[in-house]
Design goal:
By secondary structure, the protein is an alpha+beta fold. The protein contains nine helices and six strands.
Length: 218
């Protein structure tokens, strides 16, 4: 289970300007900014790549990482809610990424741990027997949580943290760039975890010009 929300893409204009620095071809820039105002007065700025900019951007993207440095200057900020076992794999991508996470340290004792309907744990595709065993386990953790709330005993809190299963859902606000997305897409698109397939589909469907600039290594 994975949720990907609030995608914001920025600095296309700056990246395209830098893309043209080597040949000082700034006069050939033909992209335009589009400003959209919603009912609340919030302004969204998107960019429409002109034919010349798009042609050069695609050429550099296909030429390899040493030629497409401009992609590292197109930034993506997004909220991702996913289980801990998925975040362990995401955390292998350290260069050019930043993430602020929800905190078990401050909040784990404030939520009912045995209510499997509240989205706190990923229980997708679990058969009835596995779900029954997991429910019993979470009932035990919920009893520990209640004991901690009554006693404020740090030893009990530590037990909860150490026994927390890897399908616990964390939300992180993540910042990365288009070059990161190329690496993630081609390393994870055939992964066994279904969360990576959803992530790669998000790149394909929601990231502007993904088919021209990111899906370039076929």
């Amino acid at each position: 289970m994975i949720k990907i929300e609030n995608t914001i893409v920025s600095n296309f204009e700056g990246a395209l300007r830098g893309m043209r620095n080597p040949l000082e071809s700034w006069k050939k820039t033909d992209s335009t900014q589009i400003h959209t105002v919603d009912s609340n007065g919030h302004v969204t700025v998107t960019i429409e790549l002109g034919p010349d900019d798009l042609q050069l951007a695609k050429k550099l993207s296909k030429a390899g990482s040493s030629h497409r440095k401009y992609l590292r200057q197109i930034f993506v900020c997004v909220d991702i809610t996913a289980p801990a076992y998925w975040w362990k794999e995401f955390d292998t991508y350290k260069i050019g990424t930043v993430a602020n996470s929800t905190s078990t340290m401050h909040k784990i004792h404030t939520k009912e741990l045995n209510d499997l309907s509240n989205g706190l744990f990923c229980v997708e595709n679990l058969d009835d027997e596995t779900l029954r065993i997991f429910q019993n386990y979470m009932d035990y953790l919920e009893n520990l949580r209640k004991q901690y709330l009554e006693t404020q005993d740090k030893a009990i809190w530590e037990r909860i943290i150490k026994l927390l299963p890897s399908n616990y859902m964390y939300m992180r606000t993540v910042t990365l760039n288009y070059e990161n997305l190329i690496t993630m897409y081609y390393q994870r698109r055939n992964h066994k975890l279904s969360e990576w397939h959803v992530f790669c589909k998000w790149i394909e469907d929601e990231i502007p010009y993904s088919k021209d600039l990111i899906l370039v290594e076929e």
